[in-house]
Write a structure and sequence with these properties.
This protein is mainly beta. The protein has one helix spanning 28-31; strands at 21-26, 35-40. The protein starts with 20 loop residues before the first strand and ends with a strand.
């Protein structure tokens, strides 16, 4: 039996938004950049 340390590599974040707003998340491994955008739909 082997035990390994477990470390979280992410942090949860609650982001209140309006109905017309959208949160887009980009990941380096998939999108080529790490970013979060708040977009307002018209």
């Amino acid at each position: 039996h082997r035990e390994l340390p477990i470390h979280p590599d992410f942090i949860g974040k609650k982001l209140p938004t309006a109905k017309e707003e959208q949160v887009k998340v980009y990941l380096q491994e998939i999108d080529g950049r790490d970013a979060v955008e708040l977009i307002t739909r018209s």
